[in-house]
Amino acid sequence: MVIPARLGAFRVLWLFAVFEAVCLLDTGMLFPRESSSREVKELNGRWDFRADKSPNRNQGFDKAWYKIRLAETGPVIDMPVPASYNDITQDPTLRDFIGWVWYEREVVVPSRWIADEGTRVVLRVGSAHYYSVVWVNGVKVTEHNGGHLPFEAEIGSLIRKDPTQPCRITIAVNNTLTLDTLPPGNIQHMDDRTKYPDGFFVQNIYFDFFNYAGIHRSVLLYTTPKVYVDDITVVTDFLDNTGLVYYKVSVQGAATATLNVTLMDKNARCVASSSGPSGVLKVVDVNLWWPYLMHENPAYLYSMEVRLMATDGRSTYEDVYTLPVGIRTVNVTSTQFLINNKPFYFHGVNKHEDSDIRGKGFDWPLIVKDFNLLKWLGANSFRTSHYPYAEEILQMCDRHGIVVIDECPGVGIKDIRSFGNSSLTHHLAVMDELVSRDKNHASVVMWSVANEPAAEMPPADFYFKTLIKHTKALDPTRPVTFITDSNYARDRGAPYVDVICVNSYFSWYHDPGHLEVIPIQLKSQFENWYGKYQKPIIQSEYGADAVAGLHSDPPVMFSEEYQKAVLQSYHNVLDQKRKQYVIGELIWNFADFMTVQGITRVVGNKKGIFTRERQPKAAAFILKERYWRLANETGRLPFWTKYPCSF
Ligand code: BDP
C-alpha cells in the first residue's frame, strides 16, 4: 500500500499514476470559501419547522407542502439550523420522532447575484440526517441519501425566473434507517393491540449513539463565476529538502481556461508556481506538515491559490480558490506507521459529534473547546467515530496537527441482509463522497470503512474486499482500515486492510468487574491478531463507564476509580507491545455522549474521560500524564522533556 518509500524516478512515475486514481471522481465538493470571485451567505439561524406526524408520515408529500409557505400548510415551530431537532422542544414525540420533518426559510438573494448571468448561485447543505429533498420556490432542486456529508444544487436559473419572488428554500429530511442505509437499521411495527397503541412502531438500530436528526451543518448560498474551479486534488511528497505538491485542477463551464497556481508560505511569500490543469510544485527548503507534539513547528500549512481565466466570446471569467496544503507523506510497514518517514504513535481519542441541546448540530464554541482539551491532554490524534465529522473540524486538525482516522458511517452492520448489493452500492458511493470531500486534508492519514461489522458472516468477505479495494483505488496514498472487535474470528475483510484496528472491553463487557483479566486477555488479543496478519495494530477503543463523582475504593464498576484502573492496566500491556507492532491507542471515549434509552445506559454512555459538559474525570489526568510522557518519548523535541503546564 501507500507510497513506496524510496524509489527515485520510479517513485515520481508511481505518484503520477496514483494521482490519476485520486482524481477518479467526476465532480468536486470544494469547501465553500470566499475569494475575490466567490461570495458566501450563511443561512443559519431560525427556520420554520413542521414534523409530519401523519400515520404514514407522507402527508407533506401528498399535500405538496413544498408548493406553498410551510406556515400555510399547518402549525410551524421555530427550529435552529444547524442543530438536531430532538432536544430543542419539550415535546417527547419530537425527541424520538421517526419520519419526515420539514424545514423552510425565505432568503433575500443579493440583487447583483441575480442580475449577473455570469454568476452561479449554489445552495449547499453541510449535512442533514439522513435522506433529504430540497426545493426552491416549490421546484425540486436535489435530493441526497445519507447524513454527515454535504450536497448542493445550482439554483441561479431558478431564482432568475422571477426575481421579484423571495427565494423560499424547503428541505424535507427523513431519519428512517433501513437495512440499506448507512448506518443500517430497521423499522418494526408492533401489531398486538393488547400491548401497543394503534400505529406503534420502533426504529431498531445497532449502534450506540442517539440517532439525532435534522439539519446538522450549515446551509449556505455561495457563488462562483459561470466558468469555475470545480475540484482540486493535491498529493504531496518530498525528497531531501524539497517538497513536492502534485496538483490537478478540474474546471467546469468552459472547454478551455488558463490556470495559474501559486503556492504561498505562511508569510504569503510565493514559494512555487505553475500553470495548467496539472503539474508539480517544487518547494525548496520545505516546511513539512508534522503532527502536534512530533516537531517544534507542527501543522505547517501552505496556501495554494488557483486562479482561472476563461472567456466564452462574450464575457471573461476569473475564478480564485485558495486551498490550505500541508506537505507530508504517510507509509505503513508491518510494524510501523510512518509520517514523513518517522514512526508515528497514535496517542489519542475517539470522539462523537454530540452535546446537550444541539445534539449533533455544528457548534464552534464546542469545537474550539474540544481542541483546547485535546491539546491539554497531549492527544495527537482522533478517529471520527462513527461517521465523517464537519469539514471545519478537519480544517482545525490541519491547523493544529491533530492526526485523523477518517471513518465513514458504516457502523452497526450486523444483519446479513445489510451485506447485499444495494447496501454495498450505497457504501461505495458514500466512500466516493467522503474521499472526494476530505482527500486534501493533511491531517487525514487513514480511511476507516466500518466499525465492528458482523465480519464473521460469509458475505462480509466479498463486501469488504470490494469496499477496501474501491477505497484504495480512490486514494492509493492513504492506508485503509476497518475497526474490528477483539474476536479475531470476525476477521473477514482483515486480509485487505493495511492496519488492524481492534476494539476491546476486557473487564467490562467481558468478565465485568475482573480487572485481573486485562493483562492476559489484552496480550493474547495482540498476539493473536499480529500472529495471524503481521500488520501493525491500533487499540482503536478501550475504556469503561464512569459516572462523574461516583467513587469507590476498592474500585467497582461505574466508579471513577474503576475507569482509572482499567486504563492503567491496558497501558501496562500497551507499553510492552508498542515496542513491537502496536502503533497506537485511542481511548473510548473523549466525552460522555447520548445514546438510545436502554437498561445498560444511564442517560447516555459514560465512558468519557470528560463529562458531556467537558469537565475532566479522574481518568483524564491519568491519560494526560501518559500522553505527555509518550510525546516526550516518541516526539523529537528536546525541550519537551519537561512536563507541560502551559495549557
Ligand atoms: C464499541 C462501539 C462503540 C460503543 C462502545 C461502548 O464501537 O460505538 O459506544 O462499544 O459500548 O464496541 O461503549
Question: Could you please say which CATH topology of the largest domain applies here?
Answer: TIM Barrel
Q: Compounds present?
A: beta-D-glucopyranuronic acid
The average pLDDT score comes to 94
Low-pLDDT windows of residues? 1-7
Structure annotation, total helices: 13
How many strand segments? 32
CATH superfamily of the largest domain: Glycosidases
Report the sheet-strand fraction. Answer: 25-35%
Number of domains: 3
Largest sheet: 8 strands, parallel, barrel
Strand order of the largest sheet: 25-26-27-28-29-30-31-32
CATH architecture of the largest domain: Alpha-Beta Barrel
Category by helix and strand content? alpha+beta
Radius of gyration: 25 Å
Helix content: 10-25%
Tell me, what is the CATH class of the largest domain? Alpha Beta
Tertiary shape: globular
- N/C terminus separation: 38 Å
Pfam families: Glyco_hydro_2, Glyco_hydro_2_C, Glyco_hydro_2_N
Function: Plays an important role in the degradation of dermatan and keratan sulfates.
Transmembrane segments: 12-31
Subcellular location: Lysosome
Question: Explain this structure to me?
Answer:
Keywords: Glycoprotein, Glycosidase, Hydrolase, Lysosome, Membrane, Signal, Transmembrane, Transmembrane helix. Its main location: other. Residues 227-328 form the Glycoside hydrolase family 2 immunoglobulin-like beta-sandwich domain. With 647 residues, this protein is an alpha+beta fold. The chain has 3 domains: 39-175 and 211-225, Jelly Rolls (Sandwich), CATH 2.60.120; 228-325, Immunoglobulins (Immunoglobulin-like, Sandwich), CATH 2.60.40.10; 332-633, Glycosidases (TIM Barrel). 23% of the residues lie in helices and 29% in strands. It is built from 13 helices and 32 strands. Helix 9 (421-438) links the parallel strand 27 (403-407) and strand 28 (444-451). It is globular, with a radius of gyration of 25 Å. Mean pLDDT is 94; it is low at 1-7. It binds beta-D-glucopyranuronic acid (BDP). Beta-D-glucopyranuronic acid is lined by residues 208, 386, 451-452, 503, 541, 588, 605, 607. Beta-D-glucopyranuronic acid binds at residues 208, 386, 451-452, 503, 541, 588, 605, 607.
